[in-house]
C-alpha cells in the first residue's frame, strides 16, 4: 500500500563559502516505509515477523549525496531502541510480534540543510484485507512517497547533485551560468 505525503520544503544551510542560487529549487523524491514477513512455522509468540524499515530514493536511488545519517527510533521494548544508520542503504531490519510507530529522523550533509527532517511511520505486520491465513510468501508493504524540496541551494550543492539520478534539478534562470563540475 502506498501513501502519498506532502512536499517537505527546506531551505539549505548557508555557510558563506558558496553563493546561493536565487529562484532555484532542487527536489528529491523519497520513499520511506516498512516491509514485513510472517515467519510461518518458525514464528513464536514474541517473534512472529521479520521486518525492515527504510528511507530511499523513490526508484531506489542512493540518497547519500544529501543524507548524512538516518536515526530510527523503535519501540522502547527493543534493546537499544535508537538505531543510527550512517551509510546507504538507510534501512534497519528486526524481528518481533507487535505493531508500533517508528520515528525516522533524517540528517543532511552540512552544505545541504542544517535542519533534520522528522518523519513517522506505523509498522504494519498484518495485511489490511483479511482473506484467510497469513502467507510467508506475501509481504506486507506500507510506504509513503514524499518530495524533499531545497530552496535557494548553494552553487556547490547544485553542482554536486545536478546529474544525480534522484534529483529533480530545474534549468537555471536565464543569465545564470555556473562553472562546469570538477
From TrEMBL:
Domain YEATS: 20-164
InterPro entries: YEAST_sf, YEATS, YEATS_dom
Entry annotated with the keyword Transcription regulation: yes
GO cellular component, one term: nucleus
One GO BP annotation of this record: regulation of DNA-templated transcription
Stored Pfam families: YEATS
Location relative to the cell: Nucleus
Keywords (A to Z) from UniProt: Nucleus, Transcription, Transcription regulation
Protein's recorded name: YEATS domain-containing protein
Amino acid at each position: 500500500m502506498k501513501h502519498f505525503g506532502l512536499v517537505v520544503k527546506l531551505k539549505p544551510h548557508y555557510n558563506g563559502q558558496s553563493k546561493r542560487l536565487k529562484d532555484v529549487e532542487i527536489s528529491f523524491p523519497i520513499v520511506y516505509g516498512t516491509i514485513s514477513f510472517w515467519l510461518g512455522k518458525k514464528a513464536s509468540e514474541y517473534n512472529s515477523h521479520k521486518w525492515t524499515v527504510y528511507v530511499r530514493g523513490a526508484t531506489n536511488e542512493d540518497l547519500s549525496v544529501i543524507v548524512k545519517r538516518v536515526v530510527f527510533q523503535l519501540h522502547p521494548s527493543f534493546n537499544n531502541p535508537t538505531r543510527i544508520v550512517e551509510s546507504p542503504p538507510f534501512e534497519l531490519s528486526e524481528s518481533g510480534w507487535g505493531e508500533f510507530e517508528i520515528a525516522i529522523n533524517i540528517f543532511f550533509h552540512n552544505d545541504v540543510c542544517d535542519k533534520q527532517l522528522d518523519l513517522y511511520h506505523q509498522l504494519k505486520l498484518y495485511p489490511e484485507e483479511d482473506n484467510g491465513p497469513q502467507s510467508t510468501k506475501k509481504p506486507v508493504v506500507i510506504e509513503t512517497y514524499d518530495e524533499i524540496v531545497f530552496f535557494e541551494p548553494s552553487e556547490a550543492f547544485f553542482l554536486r547533485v545536478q546529474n544525480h539520478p534522484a534529483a529533480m534539478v530545474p534549468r537555471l534562470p536565464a543569465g545564470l551560468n555556473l562553472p562546469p563540475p570538477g
